[in-house]
Design brief:
- By secondary structure, the chain is an alpha/beta fold.
- About 40% of the residues lie in helices and about 20% in strands.
- Helix 6 links the parallel strand 11 and strand 12.
- It is globular and about 65 Å long.
- The protein starts with a helix and ends in a 7-residue tail after the last helix.
C-alpha cells in the first residue's frame, strides 16, 4: 500500500514538473516575441526641435535694417529679419525663435557644431547647397556696389581692381569683390570704414542701400553698380535632416505672405513691398 502511494506521488511530481516546463517555455516564447517587436518610430527633426522648444538663429546684431540694436547694444534686437522670422516661428506650434549674437566668421562653424539652428541673411549658392539644406527664400535682393557720392573712379564692379572693399572671403559679397580684384578689409563697421575712407566701397544688397540712404543722412552715398543676378536669402539648416523643419518654416512663411503680414513689415522697413513671386 505504501509502495502504491509513493508511486502515485512520484507521478504527480513528474506531471507538475512537465507542466511547469511548458509554462516557462510559453513565457520565454512570449518574451522573445515581445523583444522582436519593431521599436517605436523615431522622432522627426521637427519633433526634436519642439522638445528643445526654441530655434536659435545666429546674427551679428550690427546689420540694419535686418538685425541691429537701436541707439545702443543695451536695447533689444530689432529689424526686418528679427520681426519677420519671429512672426514665422511663432506660427510653428511648440517652437519659439531666439537670436544669438556672434561674429560673422564663426557663424558657419557654429552652425556645423550645433551652437545655432540657423543663420539669417545667408545667400543661397550652389556651393552652400552642397553642405546645407535651405528653407524657401524669405527675401530676394540684388548685390549693390555702394560708394561715397564724391568717389568718381568707381562706377562699376569692374572698377574695383586694387580698391579696398569691406568684406570677408567667407561671404558672398567678399567673394564678389575679390572676383573683381579688390582687396578685402574684413574688420570694422562697414559704414564707418566707408565714411572715414578706410575702404573705397562696400557691397551689400539693394534693400540695405535703400535703408541706409534713409537712415544715414550724414552720409552722401550712391549705388555705383547693381548686379543683375538675384540673391535668394533663406535659412540654412544642417544637412541630412528629414525636411520637417524646413517644411514647417515654409508653411508658416506662406501664411505670413498670404495674410498681409509680410507686406506690412516690408513697408515698415523698406518703404515698399519687396515681396517677389
Amino acid at each position: 500500500m505504501l509502495k502504491i502511494k509513493s508511486t502515485a506521488l512520484i507521478t504527480v511530481l513528474i506531471l507538475a514538473l512537465i507542466a511547469s516546463g511548458c509554462s516557462n517555455k510559453k513565457g520565454s516564447e512570449s518574451e522573445a516575441a515581445l523583444s522582436t517587436k519593431p521599436p517605436a518610430a523615431e522622432q522627426t527633426s521637427l519633433d526634436q526641435l519642439k522638445e528643445k522648444g526654441e530655434f536659435v538663429i545666429a546674427t551679428t546684431g550690427t546689420y540694419p535694417p535686418y538685425a541691429f540694436h537701436e541707439e545702443s547694444n543695451v536695447r533689444p534686437l530689432t529689424g526686418f529679419d528679427i520681426e519677420l522670422l519671429t512672426e514665422i516661428w511663432n506660427r510653428v506650434e511648440g517652437v519659439k525663435p531666439s537670436f544669438k549674437e556672434a561674429e560673422w566668421d564663426g557663424m558657419l562653424a557654429g552652425l556645423d557644431a550645433g551652437r545655432f539652428d540657423s543663420i539669417h541673411q545667408i545667400g543661397v549658392t550652389d556651393e552652400r547647397r552642397q553642405k546645407y539644406d535651405f528653407t524657401d527664400p524669405y527675401l530676394i535682393a540684388y548685390p549693390t556696389l555702394i560708394v561715397l557720392d564724391e568717389t568718381k573712379d568707381i562706377n562699376s564692379f569692374e572698377d574695383l581692381k586694387g580698391k579696398k572693399v569691406y568684406g570677408s572671403n567667407t561671404s558672398i559679397y567678399g567673394k564678389l569683390a575679390e572676383s573683381y580684384g579688390a582687396v578685402l578689409v574684413p574688420e570694422g563697421e562697414s559704414l564707418e570704414l566707408l565714411k572715414n575712407k578706410r575702404v573705397d566701397a562696400i557691397i551689400f544688397n539693394n534693400l540695405y542701400f535703400l535703408e541706409i540712404k534713409k537712415s544715414r543722412t550724414d552720409l552722401k552715398l550712391r549705388a555705383a553698380d547693381e548686379a543683375d543676378t538675384e540673391e535668394f536669402v533663406a535659412l540654412p539648416l544642417v544637412k541630412g535632416g528629414d525636411g520637417t523643419v524646413a517644411t514647417a518654416f515654409n508653411e508658416a512663411l506662406k501664411s505670413v505672405q498670404e495674410d498681409g503680414t509680410y507686406e506690412k513689415l516690408s513697408v515698415k522697413w523698406f518703404g515698399e513691398n519687396v515681396l517677389k513671386s
